[in-house]
Amino acid sequence: MRYLTGVAAPSPQTFEDVKLVLLSPWSTAALALCVAAAVTALALSAWSYRRHRWPGRLALTVLRALALSAVLALVLQPALQLRSVTRLPNHIAVVIDRSLSMSIRESGGSESRLDRARAVLTRSRPRVASWRETRVVDFFAFGAQLSPLGEAAIDGGTPSARAGSAAEPKAKRGTAAEPKAKRGTDTLSADEGATRIRAALAALRRRFRGNDLAGVVLLSDGRDNGRFGSGQLSLPSRKFLDKFGAPIHTVFVGRSLVRDVAVTTVFADDFAFVRNAVKVEADVSISGIDKPRVPVMLIRGEEIIARQVIEVKPGKREYRVRFEFVPQRVGKFVFTVAAPVYEGEALTHNNRRSFLVNVIRDRIRVLQICGRPSWDQRFLRRLLKRDPNVDLISFFILRTPTSLALVPPSELSLIPFPTEELFQKELGSFDLVILQNFNYAPYGIGIYLPHLRRYVERGGGLAMVGGDLSFTSGGYFGTPISRVLPLRLLPPSANRDRLTSSAKFRPKLTRRGRDHPILQIGATRAETVQLLKSLPSLAGVNRVAGLARGATLLAAHPQLRTASGRPMPVLATREVGKGRTLALTTDSSWHWAFKAVGRGATRRAYDRFWHGAIRWLIRDPELKYVRIIVGRSRVRRGAKQRVVIRVYRPDYSPAKDVKVSYEIAPPASTKARRKGSSKADVAVARTARTNDAGEVRLELTPHAVGAWRVKASAVVGGREASETELFLVEPAGPELRDANASDTLLRQISLATKGRYLGRAEALPELSFRPPRVLQVNWRRDIELWSRWWWLVGALLLLGLEWLLRRKLGHI
Amino acid sequence: MIGRSQGKARESLSRRAFFGALAGGAALLAGGATASAFGPSSKVRLCQLKYGGGNPVPRATALKRLAWEIEKRTSIDVALEPALIDVSDKALFSHPLLYLSGDRAFPPLPSKDIERLRRHLVFGGLLVIDSAESRLGGGFDRSVRRLVGRLFGDKQLTKVKPSHTLFKSFYLLKTPVGRVATVPYLETVQRDGRAVVVYSHNDLGGAWARDNFGQWEHGVHPGGARQRELAFRWGVNLVMYALCVDYKADQVHIPFILKRRRWQVRP
Q1: Into how many domains does chain A fold?
Q2: Domain count, chain B
Q3: Chain B residue with minimum CA distance to A594
């Protein structure tokens, strides 16, 4: 070869590149056909020599193969191509992790991971200089995204990376909101809220698409919280690395296990159904803790509602704990999964993670108990059964102890009244209990009445509907139930007329009744009043002593008076503890459903009345006059949050130009550290007036991590209505959830890209990179190998030798 | 005991009221659930439909006797005197349960009455048709089918399966019977998951009818007294169905509904 090139080239210094080429003018297909023909000829020859002994057979075959190769060369026309080329240096990218986790100092040392990365690069200066002889070395930093870095930044350092315990929130407060511009190319600080290695590599590839990337040197602690993750790579990630096109050499700047307990992830749904079990799972990372057990708690507000204990095993870091609890109230709540803080932990704020759960009703659970079948019961039951949002359980007393029993029980379809199950075991599972013309005494329910009272006080709804078995006629005077009803009952009397009235009447709306959501049976107040006048009259009421303290009278009898001369209540409501009660002293509300239809009207008034009553009794959020809508229930620290306060009039039209008082309060823990809080983290209490849409729109930028509370109140229909809403501010990123570094990912990246995993290298060794691409060919010369005289002589000699040998072996 | 509970109560009580309470309590204990409703309008009143032509009241005492039996056997507060109205009567919508009977053909109802009756049934009413004719294909049967056809369209009457709530709304029953037991099924028109028309062919009223001297007006064939008892049970079940609809069908779901709520006792 040296001879050939020496002969052909003008001088040894004038070419830098030699390669073998074929000069045949034939097409590739034709050449392939020739090669195939030669191979076939050789195979046939070898087959024809099969009768000979091995030495002769082998010699003949080799000679034939050489001869065929020589002939084939005449066809292929091989040549050596000598080229004089110009190459541009390609790029080596040195990429440094600048995420928050790089600020962690393991084992309380003075050196952070970022400091360690700086030290590696500082010690590698001679190596970098040697690379620069043939290549360009570029420096980058990345966190959530890639950014170029001036080399001076590696030496310069920044206060944030060097001062104090950089991992603590104190040092990081406000950094997420810090403008990017401040972090110019000449500063390097561990302040990014995320580590996204794949995004950084993808950005590198895009950046060098038109250029030549020789390779990458990546310095990181391996805590990726982007698409790679910290565990085994997924198939798409592996494909991404396979196609990266340049070796990635990795340096692991983490050290031994950090002393830390971290609640890294919480798996919980945003919504839960009240009184249905809710499952919450949490991943907890424990390292460097010398305790055999670590308790983990599920906390709602300040109350611990569940507790699990992790048995710490040597060599195991990741644990999963599972909680199960039953929310008993509807609303939005802040829950926290928390582990204790142990002395010397690298991070303390990652020991707890909060999340919001909006507890809603799946269906309204109603228990309807009737003392006897009646048309009033029948139409109310049909209404409840038609409503797909209602889960109804009805119990009707079909036969009393005084009814004739002419047949054996086996011929009756009656079932025992499951009093204990309903009034003791399962009472709390109902949102609403309707006692409709029901007298408790004959059925041994008296002992459960205290339960029913407590049920109401703790948030249940209770409606008592009139009839000859209701109120005083039902024996409720002086019972625990009478203390939660909206009405004061008359004492029992043998004179039925003292307790009931059978006269027909049209209930008279009170001032409060006109605006109350229960009686919003028309689209407007005027329509409601008109509608009530046109409805069929009712018949019969239970007489009562008057309204209970704190009760609201919605409708009264037009003629009857109480002993004190006030109108006899027909419909009244009351809030008792956390629950609500309603009293309707007539058993003829079904007239509004059926008799109204006979007059050509619809049963809309009846349906609206009862739906309104049920929704009010169960505190349906849709019936609130003030509502707060937050833009997102979870926002990142420093992100903008929008809050809309809507105020409605009693008829639920938007309340324009109404004064609204609102308060926005940061998490309670922030108040204790107000000195360090930004202005936006301080509670504000202001007033504003609603716009034409009945709204007050607010925007804020919260920084304090935790549950923020928005409270708004306005005077609607003469009464103050208020509402409270929560939203959660989360840390700017998932970066400090787990303090431990991991080299698993770095090893996989190097392996997949044919780079080297350098481990905890002190300095960069010699590394292999892709050679620079050829950019320009200055001159080229082809040296034909086949057109030499000795090539022809050699071919003829081989063919002659083969002929002689064949003759000697007996072939023609 | 009463005094103690009154002491806890918020209601202030005079001496007169206290004694009144004692008396009232005694009255309640004695009366129990038999205390009557607010007044006539609160009672469940059986209502027979009149129509022009034919024989709209073939068993004049039947409903009265049925009401009496219901009063004695169940907790329903029933008016012992049934109503007799025609479809155009203003009081039609005071009676969600209507009873129509006859033993011969009757002329078609006016269109206005048909519309009114349809509205009654669609919005919650129930029409029980009882054939005193005791056979299929007779004049009354043809008139009934014409009436139902005009109300809800042809082929709306279908045989009731034994799993229907009608068979278990109070008594557990197997085969429909009345004064006779010629047709072993009932027919109904179903709307929105409930029966709006129930058609019996076995002359239920004939089995129920009893004169003022306590004598049964008609013999019952072939089952005698047992069959008459079953006819009353059917009457009770029909009224109970009108009042409770599918309540009994719900009962089978209750254990499931209660069980599926995984909630522990709160109080």
Answers
A1: 5
A2: 1
A3: B93
